[in-house]
Amino acid sequence: MKPLITKYDEAVARHRSVLCLGLDPDPASHPSTDEKLRFCLRMVDIVSKHVSAVKVNENFVRDFSITEHRKLTEAIHSHGLITIYDCKMNDIENTVRAGITQVSKMGYDFITFNPVMGTLAAAVKHGETHQVGVIVLLHPSNPESEKYFRTQLANGKKFYEKILEETVAANADGAVVGLHPKITGEEVIQIRSKLGEDKIILFPGVGAQGGDLETAVLNGGRRILVNVGRTIIYSPEPEQTASEINSRINELRHVHTGKNI
Questions:
Q1: Interatomic CA distance for residues 237 and 47, integer angstroms
Q2: CATH of region 3-257, choose from 3.20.20.70, 3.40.630.30, 3.40.190.10, 3.40.50.280
Q3: Residue 221 CA to chain centroid, in angstroms?
Q4: Band of the pLDDT at 254, cuts 50, 70, 90?
């Protein structure tokens, strides 16, 4: 078992949660870097007992310095949570190596990685060197993504299934399986079957995007993370909202497995 997967297991057990807080601080609402960082830190403090992970979307925090990232990741870790830098890293090996080195300095446990440049195996290698796990973008949640990721290849497989093969071959730490309108429970079951139970499946798309929670929870297996961002962070009562979503997830998991999380 990879050490970072063990860290995930410990966070889930400690908080009785597979809910991942998505930090997407809108620059229109938080125009200054200091204000944005304070908002993120406040959200982590408010909902920490109801989540096991925090995913920080790079496009909302491009103004953060390494020092500001460290303040955020150290605060997240102080609550016993894991950190994911949602950067969808994607480039040649030398650039990927440089990027992972910087992410390690920023204090993140995992990155999301877009494999279409063909450098996934290199990313996993450099991630292991710097203790940064790689979660592969397998199937995005946005409807527009189907024109690429659900395209059928000459061998009859969909494009995302080709990525799945490479994810398994590279021994990456997990996969991003967005709750796209066309993805089915049967597909999620097949993804889990091929990944194996020792990998994480990160499910974005619940909440503001309207993804089906049951598709993720009932078919994703044990090591999952359900990401919810705007629905929580811009709720009038973020803690109550996070608590309610976590309770719903745990109810579904109990019904499905007969076991408490």
A1: 10
A2: 3.20.20.70
A3: 15
A4: confident
